């Protein structure tokens, strides 16, 4: 179901409310969509687990909220001055006090166990390959140390450079290409200020600090093109340094590596042209 297909405003609002309550996401592509609710569809098992944990919490929260609201309405109706002119002098009830202490503890335990499990499983497992992402004001640089030190920059495509079908503000000139069903370790750092390498459909969001190396990972289980953005306010063009990842079949990746070695052969590794690039971007 896609909300952008609904034209009547009140029908749209109703559908929005119903879908919010049901926790249905309207997004299908691996990029943000107009009127999107919830997360982008998961492209990794980790994101699928994050999504189902979120849905579980939403149901739990809704049940608790409805229960408390029901209690309050009951008290207001049953014990207001008119309905109950002579109030009881009861000051405490041991049974109720035990219950309202123990039940919240049990609820917290039910939340804590899957939450911690999810957190611990985000530690990097044995990785099949490594890529390094470096945040610059305002673009990303990538290196493939396991594949002949391929290195390139990925700059956002300006509106007049977009090909049909390429999403605005999300497409880059060079995509990060990775093989499907492969555990990819991502080393994240920055060269100037703090950036953040975030890929919603992978369940990945990692701060990029100058002078530090952070680590995250993903294992994409579907081929396709996925979009993310820098998620740390990093300056005037913060919103113009998107991340575009192409997940391809393993053979296709091997072919890309050979081609990339030639294509990016002249890349000098360090961004000596940083000032030049920033100046060009600012003048746009
Ligand atoms: Cu940034």
Automatic annotation (TrEMBL):
What SUPFAM superfamilies does the record point to?
Answer: Cupredoxins, Cytochrome c oxidase subunit II-like, transmembrane region
Please give the Pfam families that the UniProt record associates with this protein: COX2, COX2_TM
Q: Which cofactor does it need?
A: heme; Cu cation
InterPro entries on file: CcO_II, CcO_II-like_C, CcO_II_C, Copper_CuA, Cupredoxin, Cyt_c_oxidase_su2, Cyt_c_oxidase_su2_TM_dom, Cyt_c_oxidase_su2_TM_sf
- Localisation: Cell membrane; Membrane
Domain Cytochrome oxidase subunit II copper A binding: residue ranges: 126-259
Q: Biological process GO terms, please?
A: ATP synthesis coupled electron transport
Regions that span the bilayer: 56-77, 98-120
Give the reactions, separated by semicolons, that this protein catalyses: 4 Fe(II)-[cytochrome c] + O2 + 8 H(+)(in) = 4 Fe(III)-[cytochrome c] + 2 H2O + 4 H(+)(out)
Give the EC number(s) under which this enzyme is classified.
Answer: 7.1.1.9
Membrane topology type: Multi-pass membrane protein
N-terminal signal peptide: 1-29
Residue runs in coiled coils: none
Q: Which residues form the Cytochrome oxidase subunit II transmembrane region profile domain?
A: 31-126
A GO molecular function annotation here is: oxidoreductase activity
What GO cellular-component annotations does this UniProt entry give? plasma membrane
Explain how, and how many, cofactor molecules are bound.
Binds a copper A center.
Do you know which Gene3D superfamilies this protein is assigned to? 1.10.287.90, Cupredoxins - blue copper proteins (2.60.40.420)
What does this gene product do?
Subunits I and II form the functional core of the enzyme complex. Electrons originating in cytochrome c are transferred via heme a and Cu(A) to the binuclear center formed by heme a3 and Cu(B).
State the PANTHER family in the record.
CYTOCHROME C OXIDASE SUBUNIT 2, CYTOCHROME C OXIDASE, SUBUNIT II
Please report which protein family the annotation says this sequence is part of.
Answer: Belongs to the cytochrome c oxidase subunit 2 family.
**Record's protein name:** Cytochrome c oxidase subunit 2
